[in-house]
Amino acid sequence: MHNFDNINNLKKMQKKILITGGTGYIGSHTTIEFLEKGYQVVIIDNLSNSKIEALEGIIEITGKKVDFFQLDLTDKEHVAEFFEINKNIEAIIHFAAYKAVGQSVENPLMYYQNNLFSLINLLEAAQENNISNFVFSSSCTVYGEPDELPVKETSAIKKATSPYGNTKQISEDIINDLVNSNPNFKAIALRYFNPVGAHSSAKIGELPLGIPNNLVPFITQTAIGIREELKVFGDDYNTPDGTCIRDYIHVVDLAKAHVIAAERLLKSKNKTNFEVFNLGTGKGNSVLEVIKSFEKVTKTKLNFKITERRKGDVVAVFSHTDFANEELGWIAEKNLDDMMLSAWNWELNLRNRQ
Ligand code: UFG
Known about the structure:
Elements: H1 4-13, E1 16-20, H2 25-36, E2 40-45, H3 53-62, E3 67-70, H4 76-85, E4 89-94, H5 101-106, H6 108-128, E5 133-139, H7 163-181, E6 186-192, E7 194-196, H8 215-223, E8 230-233, E9 245-246, E10 248-250, H9 251-266, E11 274-279, E12 285-286, H10 287-298, E13 304-307, H11 322-328, H12 336-353
Parallel strand pairs: 1-2, 1-4, 2-3, 4-5, 5-6, 6-11, 7-10, 8-13
Antiparallel strand pairs: 9-12
């Protein structure tokens, strides 16, 4: 006998979602959310900044099958071939991109070449194959040093402070122009604040190659003894405790928003053909607050020292959440302690396996 739940799940089973960068940090968590909602997923990833083990974690967690293609999206010929053999894709979630701010300053052409050509090739293939639903992985970096806090989707887009940030701005423009040229094509750009934490199973999480640039992996690696000490970049900012403020958001909350965004497009609930949403908690936390939360939930003492400011750091940024809360019906559920504990459990699990 069929009930409506079964029928809805069967309908979803027929829907195939392409996730580019699906073995990466946010991509792997998002793949799980789609699989758990009954969608079929096919991943494209070139494994340049992720490991195939993420796929094993995804399969272990969900008990579901996922198709994987090791493919570089800048390779136009192979991208076309991929779409020849994967015919029934209904939506694309595009994560695959380089994401290190400092590296982009040192090697801007590498960033423009990779992030923009990948996007253009993928959009071209989407057009050729009549795939009309596109979710893009953007960043709060597009706001630069904001004039107003919390930052709204309508806040000014400032000149990008890094080539990485510029690729996100240009990518949004490219998508917007394409949407304007093709009334059948719909897209949503999700502007992430600071994604941290890991899946509750501790089977997947952030896997920085080499020395981490970001705060939370640096904290967990210091606590486990891989790094000697964490450097807190400046305590003389104009903030309550002098350290920079960010809107840290649990990666699983972020992942869930992608399913909601894709379903919004699939069910044509979108109000305009190009929509932009901030994804944050709406709460700003300082670097010292993050450290305190980590020490509390892990009952450890972190070795850190205050050093000089890091060039290019924005003083404070956190999200206005009304638009995502009301329009998407999405709200970040996990707090900073959840983020720290899950990041720590992932680090412990990762090192125990090695
Ligand atoms: N920080 C430290 N020590 C470290 C690393 C970071 O004190 O070893 C501080 C930074 O100065 C900053 C905060 O921790 O105040 C967060 O830094 P992250 O590097 O973790 O994150 P960012 O806010 O610099 O960068 C993130 C994303 C980028 C994105 C940017 C937009 O990683 O992809 O947000 O603001 F572009």
